[in-house]
Amino acid sequence: MEREMKRVSQKIEQFNRHHQPPQTTALEQQKTHTGLSEDCEVPSDPTYPLCAEKMEFLQLHWKTDPCYAFYGVDGTTCSFLKYLSQTEDFCSSSAGHNHSAPPWHQKPPVHTQKAEIRTSLAPLYEGVRNSTSPGLRFIRSRAQRMEQRWIQAGLNMRERSNISVSREMRVLLYPGTLAGGLGQRFEAMVERGGPLGELVQWADLGASLTILGHNVTLTTSQHLLHSLIGAAPGRGSCPIQRPLTFDLIYTDYHGLAHLQGAMGIAFRHYQCRFRILDSFGTEPAFNLGTYARSREYKTLWGSWDLHPQQFMTMFPHTPDNSFLGFVSEEAMNADVEKEDSYEKGNVAVVYAKQEYMWEGKFDYVKMISEEFETHATVYSRSGVPSKLPTFVTNHGLLSQEHFVQLLRQAKVFVGLGFPYEGPAPIEAIAMGCAFLQPRFNPPHSSKNNNFYRGKPTTRKISSQHPYAEEFIGKPHVWTVDINNSTEIRQTVKDILHAEVKPFTPREFTCEGMLERLQAYITHQTFCSKTLPSWPPKSVLRVLLSPLGESCADVCQRSSLRCEPALFHHLNSAATFSSLELNCSRVEPEVSHLFPAYSPWGRQCHLQQEPLLFSCAGSDPSFRRLCACRVFLPGQVALCPDCQ
Asked: Which partner from 302, 411, 483, 569 sits 20 to 30 angstroms from 535, CA to CA?
């Protein structure tokens, strides 16, 4: 009986072992944890050629950044595959699972609400109301001081019927120069007479976007930046967690680096939305990384591979970029203008806020002081004796309001050669001052000047303020050889007797900046694969340069503007034929000088890389095909059919 009972028990155990569910293996637990039902092997899919390479990278480096663990990477093959298929999009999902774009790659809902002109700058103040940052306080103060002018300019725009209406954009303003440790050093310099030009531009950009009806967020906090763009926690090796909610991000070179560090591979996906405030310009030869490295154009500031028109300059000196500009802060109020009261004393104010800018310039200033009572606004530390000459009255650093009061009394604003291309001369001219500045012979450039060395530009600066010299001129602007005492004394006497009334080019008025920025937001679309359609082809004027001249110079000499967005219209063999140039061969090549014609061998060169269409650049071997256009008087960025 016992033997029978034992035999039955064994049968039951065998039956249970045969019919019980199989044990879950560690690999199957990985599959359950990661949501993959197939074996975790690297799939062979030609549409994802980098999958195996990325798997090897993660195996070695997944512990180097906490962001990988945040996305579920735990060292297993399955977690690697899940991350690379669902977060970074380098591998396909396992069979039986639909592959969809990772969350950051998907498009957020598009808002179609139209932007309406605002009659208040209150939304701009929200982000800077309680800030202790000197830079943000300056931005707020400038916007508040000019608010009524901005509002009136917006109302004037609303009454015009030829201005395109864009949809409301969600816009992030991130001045990287004011962020982190760099921001603290920059703001400390500002309080000791450092540069304010960048802050002027940021203030006017924020005011413009707000008046135009866009949803503006302004921050200088890297921590808040990470939150706003949905950055994953860690060191920036991983992409952002969600689709970018901002239609446009305005930043600078420093901010661009911060964004790259926070966005991971999503940076390239969204880079078409960036706009870079770049005072001195970035030419295409420096912008395209592979080209810059192979042709010795590499600098610390270039190689971002953006569209050159995404860089936005303070003055229209680099036609390859977009001219953003700023607004001249006229001091004359409406009552003074009506009275036509521009009487000035024999007062000169010197444009230099730090003592080092005066080195070697005392004799020049001395000759000016023979006719003018000479004043300065140079920063001086308490208890440190001033090194300025005794014939100069130094007021120290002044607030903008007190500086304006001083310029109201002055007849001449004196440049010493540095800083280059700042906003102050334009504002002084707007207040009825003549601007006297040094001529540079030879011109200053990266070849002979430490300031421009390393900048992504080949420009040659003929004076302290080329825009004032070329676009405004006498009687508002006088350019002299400061080593020629005869020329200086004669020019000073000419200024003394000249009638110089306040003057502001339209492009430096509130309304001028609004219409320019409105045109950019409406028409510049760098996220599209299609060829640019703005400005329209109807404004194209094709010119053939002499040997060794740039298109920027050729167009300007004909009172036209070089327009890089039009180059694709003339990048064909037909254009050479229309100019009666017989080509022995026509081939697309990669060079920022092309399209161009070489008389030696009658070779015609087309441009193969659209990012290298460039107004800058010349070579004695080539006659360049140049895309030029007309422009509106006082508004060089626009043309009659461009608004």
From this structure: 302
Q: Using CA atoms, how far apart are residues 630 and 558, in angstroms rounded to an integer? A: 10
Q: Which of 637, 615, 262, 276 is nearest to 457 (CA)?
A: 615
If one compares 636 and 110, the residue with the highest pLDDT of the two is 636
Distance CA 127, CA 218 (A): 6
Domain assignment present for residue 199? The answer is yes
Q: Which amino acid is at 195?
A: P
97, 179 Cβ separation under 8 angstroms: no
CB atoms closer than 10 angstroms to residue 557: 11
Whether residue 227 sits in one domain with residue 161: yes
Residue with tokens 């302004």: 218
User: Are 321 and 312 in contact, with CB atoms under 8 Å apart?
Assistant: yes
Q: What is the chain's alpha carbon radius of gyration, rounded to the nearest angstrom?
A: 31
24/20 Cα distance (integer angstroms) = 12
In a domain, 641, yes or no: no
Domain boundary among 278, 295, 323: 323
Place of tokens 């045109």: 519
Domains: count for the chain:
4
96-119 tens-digit pLDDT = 455 677 888 887 777 778 999 999
| In a domain? residue 286 | yes
Q: Alpha-carbon distance 407 to 39, whole Å?
A: 77
Q: What is the pLDDT of residues 353-400, one digit of tens each?
A: 999 999 999 999 999 999 999 999 998 876 566 789 999 999 998 888
The strand pair at 540-544 and 585-589 is best described as unpaired
Burial class (CB within 10 angstroms; exposed 0-12, middle 13-18, buried 19+) of 105: middle
**266 and 340 housed in the same domain:** no
Domain with 59, as residue range(s), is 27-100
Q: Are residues 430 and 338 in the same domain?
A: yes
Measured distance CA(375)–CA(98) in Å, rounded: 73
Provide the CATH number for the domain around residue 486: 3.40.50.2000
Same-domain status, 262 and 361:
no
Side-chain half-sphere of 477: how many Cα atoms within 13 Å?
22
Judge whether 489 lies within some domain.
Answer: yes
Q: Strand 347-351 relative to strand 322-323: parallel, antiparallel, unpaired?
A: unpaired
Nearest to 556 by CA among 619, 470, 618: 470
Give 3-state DSSP helix, strand, coil % of the chain, rounded to 5: 40, 15, 45
- Beta strands (DSSP E) in 294-452 are 311-313, 322-323, 347-351, 373-376, 392-394, 412-415, 434-444
* pTM: predicted TM-score of the whole model, two decimal places: 0.89
- Examine the domain organization and report whether 371 and 480 are in the same domain: yes
171 and 37 fall within a common domain: no
Same domain, 491 and 544: no
Per-residue pLDDT of 473-496, as tens digits, reads: 999 999 999 999 999 999 999 999
